[in-house]
Design brief:
Layout: E1 4-13, E2 16-26, E3 31-35, H1 42-50, E4 57-62, E5 65-66, E6 77-80, H2 92-97, H3 107-120, H4 136-148, E7 154-158, H5 166-183, E8 186-191, H6 194-200, E9 203-208, E10 211-216, H7 218-223, H8 228-233, E11 237-247, E12 251-256, E13 260-265, E14 275-282, E15 287-289, E16 299-310, E17 314-321, E18 324-331, E19 342-347, E20 352-356
Parallel strand pairs: 3-8, 3-9, 6-7, 7-8
Antiparallel strand pairs: 1-2, 1-4, 4-5, 9-10, 11-12, 11-14, 12-13, 14-20, 15-19, 16-17, 16-19, 17-18
Length: about 350
């Protein structure tokens, strides 16, 4: 296992800067996700770590060793691409063994290492098959086995689950995290899927337009976003204009036109000072309430249901509160509220975060 360090990395393609000065420390053994929309620079960073692209500026260290000038085949990395890149004319066992043959592993040891890798990905009996005889999920596991059989210092995963259907993707992300935990390899995972990042990561690096917006644990980046971009990209948020009227030891007090005074806990205030601010309220933390509902501890306001998006166990409401349309995602008790229903909405101040205005 090795740590990965990026020091002031820049990548330009002609006049276009794909990655602006980026510094990042990935601890040994961690599962770190680069998360962001298409074109944000996450795959470019991964490819620079791999040695498939050279940085324009800055340095990359793996295990404390500068690798800018070290070719890809000497970096001891395991890589799984989006399309798996299996050799169709080779058997599964030959695919998995491919990297071992270029590492001077004795022939007498190769079969055992291949079988151990297939056991780890829970496909012990497919070594003599060809990739075309396997399902998409099985091919993904074989690509992973090929990457880990070489005992890499770092495992790089470039959107490896994106080609799978939704149910299989959820199953595979559990399997992938199980395998990473078992072998303990430092892992850099690239995805645009927020649920994958939140479910699998020790830490998340949220990127936008070639820049790092926030680095933190899944809980940190979700509950305490550092920017409006992070708040909107991870899940669904209501972002309301407000004014910070003062701070004390426990909270920053935001005057929100629709709701009055909202005391935001000190660890979720994002350094907000007196003056313009924004209130961040996650859609699932905004409750849509019928007549007679218990509002103890809630800040409430009257509202009207405008749109109902039924999703089975949950329902997404778009509600009108004053001049604002807000989004709420709630569990369904018996039946969802109907469009046009007069309701109230409520939330707890501790479920909010604040951003500078």
């Amino acid at each position: 296992m090795s740590s990965v360090t990026l020091n002031n990395i820049v990548k330009r393609f002609g006049d276009f800067t794909a990655v602006h000065k980026t510094s990042l420390e990935i601890p040994e053994g961690d599962f770190v996700t680069l998360l962001g929309p298409s074109g944000c620079g996450k795959t470019t960073n991964l490819r620079m770590i791999a040695g498939l692209l050279d940085p324009t500026e800055g340095e990359i260290l793996i295990g404390g060793r500068r690798v800018n000038d070290v070719p890809i085949h000497k970096r001891n990395l395991g890589i799984v691409f989006q399309n798996y890149a299996l050799f169709p004319h080779k058997t599964v066992a030959e695919n998995v063994a491919f990297g071992l043959k270029y590492r001077d592993v004795p022939k007498s040891e190769i079969a055992g290492k291949v079988q151990a890798a297939l056991d780890l990905v829970q496909l012990p009996n497919v070594g003599d098959r060809y990739p075309k005889a396997l399902s998409g999920g099985q091919q993904q596991r074989i690509a992973l086995a090929r990457a880990i059989v070489i005992e890499p210092d770092v495992l790089l995963l470039d959107e490896p689950l994106s080609a799978l259907d939704a149910n299989l993707r959820e199953d595979m992300r559990v399997e992938l995290k199980r395998i990473q935990d078992q072998i303990g390899v430092t892992t850099v995972f690239v995805t645009h899927d927020q649920s994958e990042a939140l479910a699998m990561s020790d830490s998340i690096v949220v990127m936008s337009a070639g820049r790092v917006e926030q680095v933190g644990t899944p809980e940190d980046v979700y509950n305490t976003p550092a920017s409006e971009f992070v708040a909107n990209f991870l899940g669904a948020s209501n972002i309301l204009p407000a004014r910070c009227t003062g701070r004390d030891a426990q909270a920053a007090h935001l005057d929100v036109p629709l709701f009055g005074d909202v005391p935001i806990p000190g660890d979720k205030t994002g350094g907000v000072q007196q003056g313009p601010a924004k209130l961040v309220l996650r859609a699932e933390k905004l409750l849509v309430l019928g007549e007679g509902a218990d509002t103890t501890g809630l800040i409430t306001a009257p509202a009207t249901v405008e749109t109902v998006d039924y999703q089975g166990q949950t329902v997404r409401y778009f509600v009108r509160v004053g001049d604002e349309q807000l989004q709420a995602i709630n569990m369904i008790d018996v039946h969802p509220f109907a469009e046009g229903a007069a309701v109230s909405v409520g939330f707890r101040p501790r479920d909010c975060a604040a951003l500078p205005g």
